[in-house]
Amino acid sequence: MTHGSADLSALLPADLPQRRLLRTPVPGPRSRALADRRSAAVAAGVASTLPVYVERAGGGVLVDVDGNSFIDLASGIAVTSVGNASPAVAAAVAAQATAFTHTCFMVAPYEGYVAVCEALGRLTPGDHAKRTVLVNSGAEAVENAVKIARRATGRDAVVVLDHAYHGRTNLTMAMTAKAMPYKTGFGPFAGEVYRVPASYPLREPAPLTGAEAAARATSVIEKQVGADRVACVVVEPVLGEGGFIVPAPGFLPALARWCAENGVLLVADEVQTGFARTGAMFACEHDGVVPDLVAMAKGIAGGLPLGAVTGRAELMDAVHAGGLGGTFGGNPLACAAALATIELYEQADLAAAARRIEERVVTRLRAVAVRAPQVAEVRGRGAMLAIELVRPGSLEPDAAEAARVARACAERGVLVLTCGTYGNVVRLLPPLVIPDALLDEGLDVLEEALLVGAPQAAPV
Ligand SMILES: *Cc1c(COP(=O)(O)O)cnc(C)c1O
Question: Does one domain contain both 20 and 141?
């Protein structure tokens, strides 16, 4: 089914009403008390979007300690795509927790790890022979993809895109574009990382096809790095933290072609875009691109921490025994959760659910954009959708307006996130199982936030 609605209600926790309900101002008194404890105990460098403390969550709602029920249009940053506390995932984790919680796969292996690797080999793009390593996070997946690419090619240089986000570890900070808050004061950074222009259709000085944008990037590589020094080009098929930027059609295929012609590996960072989020199991599929290595995490395990790199068997197996791994990588609870989660993506066809969400949200937001002069663009893929906000009548980014809209939504019981190199993008990452009525109510609130209190067009 590609249109209309499918009944996904069986995938929601039965005992948690899927509704928006505010019992107190946001934040309420119990959340304010926890905020006081927090500031005396939690490092100030860890920031939170929502000022409330969660007591329960399920499907598409977060319930705070004051009894307020929020519509969740964030999924913990594209993680709980199968819904929070998905009953199938919770049951799989509970069963695994009573069997065993940890052995370390490098010490005493178990079937769950193998089964997750089998599933990822089957689901990632391309029908070549594949191998997989499991890790703990998205940053660790990206780091391992770079290690594997360097070992397999014998080359050092890593090429990344402008607006990229790859994580907060030392190597992935170097690969990430934005200084504040991710890099400022945290250097020196890992070497041999080179940044080239991405395709950002809204902000090109002149219209550029995808092939032209790719040629702009590869000519920088050839002139400033040398193609024969490059181990890999790492790309997010839709730039995530950088602003949900969908490249011009043809950009990724042209980049992939250049990589293949130059012995450079194409690494897809599908940490945010993977697992049905964009309306396909992996976002590369929209462009018909088959990466050599795929880094995954976020949506992989229904909320449990797990990352993975899946790639061509001969590249993955170029690494010597003991060169990959980690104490917790592929933890049995995370593997049990991943197997249950992957089964939901496939059996409930949640990629189709993401496409239905896209149709519903984009139709709605494009209609709002006509009346909201600060909206420069509504864009995204599947259930990875965003609006970029500017000073009316210009392309000047308006981060304050994005923050205002997000805050106004939160105060009215709807969680949305911001992102973007310029901080001026409001993004939506609803759980793919969100009931239509709940999504529509969330959009009502977002619409009002955009239309009421927005900056007016400057007088001419
Ligand atoms: C979130 C993210 C990462 C980092 O993942 P963590 O699990 O936070 O380390 C890497 N790449 C992309 C594209 C991401 O969205």
Answer: no
Question: CB–CB of 149/293 below 8 Å?
Answer: yes
Distance 237 CA to ligand 1 centre (A): 13
Ligand 1 pocket residue status of 137, Cβ below 6 Å? yes
Last residue of a domain, one of 304, 324, 347: 347
Inside any domain, residue 460 = no
| pLDDT value at residue 7 | 84
192: phi > 0 → left, psi -120 to 50 → alpha, else beta; which?
left
Mean of pLDDT values over 138-153: 98
pLDDT value of position 387 = 98
Give me the number of domains the chain comprises: 2
- Provide the pLDDT for residue 459: 57
Enumerate residues 6+ apart whose C-beta is below 8 A from 3: 356, 359
Has residue 220 got a pLDDT over 70? yes
Q: Are 171 and 138 in contact (CB under 8 A)?
A: no
Ligand 1 contact, 166 CB (< 6 A):
yes
* DSSP notation for 144-186: HHHHHHHHHH---EEEEETT----SSHHHHHH----TTTTTT-
Range of the domain at 32: 5-86+349-451
Residues 23 and 150 in one domain: no
User: 134 C-alpha vs ligand 1 centroid, how far in Å?
Assistant: 15
Sheet with 417-419, edge to edge strand ranges: 375-381, 384-389, 425-428, 417-419
Answer yes or no: is the C-beta of 244 below 6 A from any ligand 1 atom: no
Read off the pLDDT of residues 363-405 as tens digits, 9 standing for 90 and up.
999 999 999 999 999 999 999 999 999 999 999 999 999 999 9
Does the pTM surpass 0.90? The reply is yes
Range in 2-11, 107-116, 226-235, 445-454 with the lowest mean pLDDT = 2-11
56: in domain = yes
262/408 same-domain check:
no
Domain assignment present for residue 93? The answer is no
Residue 455 confidence class, pLDDT cut points 50, 70, 90: confident
Using the mean position of ligand 1's atoms as its centre, give its distance from the Cα of residue 376 in Å.
Answer: 26
Q: What is the distance in A from the centroid of ligand 1 to the CA of 272? A: 7
- Ligand 1 centroid to Cα of residue 283, in Å, is 15
**Which among 347, 363, 379 is the end of a domain?**
347
Is the domain of 319 the same as that of 386? no
The CA distance from 242 to 194, in Å, is 17
CATH number for 234: 3.40.640.10
Asked whether the predicted pLDDT for residue 328 surpasses 70, the reply is yes
Ligand 1 within 6 A of CB of 236 = yes
